[in-house]
Amino acid sequence: MQDDLPKGFKAGAAAAGFKAQNRDDLGLIVSDRPAALAGMFTQNVFKAAPVLVCQEILAQGGTARAVLANSGQANACTGEEGLANCRATQAMVAGLTGLRVEEILPLSTGVVGAHLKMDLWLDAVPLLVKSLGSRDAEGFTRAFMTTDAFPKFSSRELQMEGGAVRLTVMAKGAGMICPNMATMLCVALTDADVERGPWQAMFHRAVEQTFNRVSVDGDTSTNDTILGLANGASGVAVRSARDLAQLEEALTAILGTVSHMLVMDGEGASKVIHITVTGAASEADAALVARSVGHSQLVKTAIYGGDANWGRIVTAVGYSGASFDPTQVGLTLCGVERFRQGRPVNDDKEDLLAERLKAKDIPVEISLGDGPGSYTLQASDLGHEYVTLNSDYRS
Amino acid sequence: MQDDLPKGFKAGAAAAGFKAQNRDDLGLIVSDRPAALAGMFTQNVFKAAPVLVCQEILAQGGTARAVLANSGQANACTGEEGLANCRATQAMVAGLTGLRVEEILPLSTGVVGAHLKMDLWLDAVPLLVKSLGSRDAEGFTRAFMTTDAFPKFSSRELQMEGGAVRLTVMAKGAGMICPNMATMLCVALTDADVERGPWQAMFHRAVEQTFNRVSVDGDTSTNDTILGLANGASGVAVRSARDLAQLEEALTAILGTVSHMLVMDGEGASKVIHITVTGAASEADAALVARSVGHSQLVKTAIYGGDANWGRIVTAVGYSGASFDPTQVGLTLCGVERFRQGRPVNDDKEDLLAERLKAKDIPVEISLGDGPGSYTLQASDLGHEYVTLNSDYRS
């Protein structure tokens, strides 16, 4: 069942009944030894109880043994009671597994402001612990899905100097997604033996290049968490610069794959907008422009409708807050240059552009001048399905 | 026909055929004497050609005689050619009216990146000038409507110490609306005799309190312009502190009325969200929070669907970037307190809340603590009609 998990990790799941009946909504991963921990968290001021607890664990030691994830209730904006409930769920699992409370990383997703349903937890945790070993990466991922249309996970094996190691990433998330930290729940596991310092450093860089550069609706959730656990169970030490670089490259690639799945499954999304900004005075300015375009409702609805209304893109560049010379700005949409040095060009290529806008992947290239700053962002479009899903999320 | 315009102003309109046939899409207002001019403009870096020309006129002298408005083409992002076209339209009107080019304020709205259709202008301007005196406030307003569902205008008469003066405001705008300057096209006319300095000062304050506090989609257009012309044709001098205060009060009230119409007619909007933030450390922090909530797609779709998902509001407060203590935050939605000092309250009032969310006007009161900063914002919801309108704007 769990061939795709790295060595030393087991997964389980249970149907606690938090939302629908007979659907897994509680998941557990346990490592047979302490794993080096890396983590990045939402920048929302209202950090959910599980986020606060994960941050504590990361600050205290930087190792962990387990991940405990639920859907249905976010346990965010729930005050002291929410924090106490979160710790109680850790204690339930600790009592049945022999793990210490502070080795168990909690993850919650669901409605903000709703308390954990502790009676359902009490019934479900024994079943959850018993199920350890019965689920693979997909099985764990399904346990913490909410409005996701499909489970998002990916695995790969790498040849290091000392042998093979495995890397598995499992994520959920389809709404409340914004490139200002982790943007959903995600767990990356590896059985590589990598020291905490380099693991955390490569993890931060990989997240910055991937999950921090996707956007569905510009809403940064209270619960966004991405965890990386390296337990060394492969017995393969990753120490040389070449091995470390290879692991980082693979981690970045696999997080990129999964974060792309996230945008594809942006709530009700039908297209992925690939925004590239170059020639900015700084990376910060390039990021401002990319996010302004990627968050613009008018751009997102135009792309949804296949409307070659490129002026909306230039307008969003203009109100981004970035510094640039408007007479140096250029825009190429789906490979067709439509704006150069502040003026429209290729007016006669509207039909070609309209044809290309029927594609699922829409490249938007924006040049601001000859500065060194660049940034990329993947954003979803905005269509009727988004409105339908989000105007009635809780029913 | 024009009983509702202040004395000394005449309005005309013509159907130039910029978009549909047989619909006014070109409007002109002429004052029989120079009027003291006030103006505020978009903060978008890509300022449309007519915005640049209005700014020139305002900088040069601060008086004007005419407003020339078209729909169909925004003349934004059109480079030097766009600027030359804009000046050519001023020259056409100047040639037929005897006004000077630099007394004619141009306003354009429509598709960004589209050039003015100069051949249609050449045919239409003679008809436009001939029509002067044949249109009232509604008639002029209809000439520069785009996707507006209804014309937005309002008039009132004020008793000053020296007699009666009249104030008329005409506006268009339903999309690309964001509280970062004027947010659409708007013309305010009065026949009061008020000096330029006090007129400009009260105009800025009134716009800041009204048009700068509405939001439809967070997109700041390239063309936003609001002009105020005071021509003194009533012969009533407004000089005393009491008269000046009365005029400012009326101006603020009438701009408030018209800006509320703008949100009600937000493209595809079905509800108006009235956001009040109090207790912030500063007005700037309060504004950050109000705009974060007012721009949140998740908040706007929940309100559209009548979903009492208040956690989305608190989440948007949390990622606003404002500084505050999360344990001091409170939220009252439709008069029902749901969040107090960082904790949910009144869980049993969900049904009451759901009932109240069926209303057209949705009050959202957010308290951040005991600081002096406050801010109000009116935002539209986000529904299927918005997507339908904006995914196929140009057809």
Automatic annotation (TrEMBL), chains A, B:
Pathway: Amino-acid biosynthesis; L-arginine biosynthesis; N(2)-acetyl-L-ornithine from L-glutamate: step 1/4; Amino-acid biosynthesis; L-arginine biosynthesis; L-ornithine and N-acetyl-L-glutamate from L-glutamate and N(2)-acetyl-L-ornithine (cyclic): step 1/1
A matching Pfam family: ArgJ
Compartment(s) where it occurs, according to its Swiss-Prot or TrEMBL record: Cytoplasm
Enzyme kind, highest EC tier: transferase
Keywords: Acyltransferase, Amino-acid biosynthesis, Arginine biosynthesis, Autocatalytic cleavage, Cytoplasm, Multifunctional enzyme, Transferase
Keyword Transferase in record: yes
UniProt site (Cleavage): 182-183
Reactions the enzyme catalyzes: N(2)-acetyl-L-ornithine + L-glutamate = N-acetyl-L-glutamate + L-ornithine; L-glutamate + acetyl-CoA = N-acetyl-L-glutamate + CoA + H(+)
EC id: 2.3.1.35, 2.3.1.1
Tree of life domain: Bacteria
GO terms under cellular component: cytoplasm
An MF annotation (GO) of this entry: L-glutamate N-acetyltransferase activity
Active site feature: 183 (nucleophile)
SUPFAM superfamilies: DmpA/ArgJ-like
InterPro entries reported for this sequence: Arg_biosynth_ArgJ, ArgJ-like_dom_sf, ArgJ_beta_C
Recorded family membership: Belongs to the ArgJ family.
Protein name: Arginine biosynthesis bifunctional protein ArgJ
Species this protein is from: Desulfovibrio legallii
Source species taxonomy: Bacteria, Pseudomonadati, Thermodesulfobacteriota, Desulfovibrionia, Desulfovibrionales
